[in-house]
Amino acid sequence: MSKQLQTHLFAFITVLIWGAGFPFTRAIGDQIGPFSLVFIRCCTGFVILLLLGRITGGIRKPFTRKHHLFFFLAGLSGFSLYLVFFNLGLVTLDSATASVISATCPIFTAIAASKIYHEKIKPIGWIMMLCAFIGVVVLLVWDNGFHIKIGALWVLLLSILFAFYNLLDRKLTSIGYTSMEKVTYATMWGAVQSLVFLPSAAHDMVHASLTANLAAIMLGVLATALAYFFWGRALSLTDKTSTVTNYIFLNPLIASVIGVLLLREVPTPATFAGGIIIVVSVVIFSLKGVPHE
């Protein structure tokens, strides 16, 4: 299998799992709180990755002390703080709306990559960025006038945060870390940072149903451990960050379909209107907004 095909395959598998993560998080409902779920996902993901690392040949220690800071920041931006924003967002938003707003992440990544790695953005790219943000505004104000749902702001923040994680992942790849090493150390720090939520997690898991507990653990195994490993693998194989991050625009479709089937969530007119603007803008940005090799 060619390097290019592997890149696209790993990226697609990742967004397929992440897209399902929106409705599955909603399905847990209030049985397990948003902060408790952060601890469960981070710790479950770390344990699974540690086991996989041992099976696949081991994980090297960080090369220098400075690299511990990179992994600490990756744990914050890709796991602990990211999941706090993710879970808080889904308290007030349906799966489709949250996934549509999160689809702006490739744009934030491209902006940062243009500044740090000098990846060029064409004029049409900047126009599409503006259009995407107009789509976000439509989502924010359609149903509530200028009373913005706080969940939408949480999801917008996680999109910015995950863009930072993508660039950190690329940095760690350039240093020489493998996909398994990157995601394992980042998840380790995410688990450490989420220890503050241990008491609430223990309480919620004792009182939650077996179904809710299993759903939370499966999110840790699939959406945290395996999906992040595949994502890191895709980023390590590509020469252009946007080739991988553009796959995030598939999240709204996946999340919406599973949300309808699993939770009977019917997207609102605001989700359709804002979603179409955002997704079309991101697709055009992906195809025309950045130079392709």
What is the gist of this entry?
This protein is mainly alpha-helical. The chain is 79% helix and 0% strand. The chain is globular, with a radius of gyration of 18 Å.
Notes on the structure:
By secondary structure, the chain is mostly helical. The protein is built from 13 helices and no strands. Helix 1 runs antiparallel to helix 10 and helix 3 (66-92) runs antiparallel to helix 7 (150-175). The longest helix has 28 residues, at 210-237. The model has no long low-confidence stretch (mean pLDDT 85). It starts with a helix and ends with a helix.
Which secondary structure elements does this structure contain, and how are they paired or packed?
Blueprint: H1 3-28, H2 34-55, H3 66-92, H4 95-102, H5 105-116, H6 123-141, H7 150-175, H8 179-193, H9 198-207, H10 210-237, H11 241-245, H12 251-263, H13 269-289
Distance between the termini: 20 Å
Helix proportion of residues, in percent?
over 70%
Count up the helices: 13
Name the structural class. mainly alpha
Radius of gyration in whole Å, from Cα? 18 Å
Largest sheet report: none
Shape: globular
Counting DSSP E segments of at least 2 residues, the number of strands comes to 0
β-strand percent reads under 5%
Low-confidence stretches: none
Name a few traits of the molecule.
single chain; about 290 residues; about 0% strand; 13 helices; mainly alpha; about 80% helix
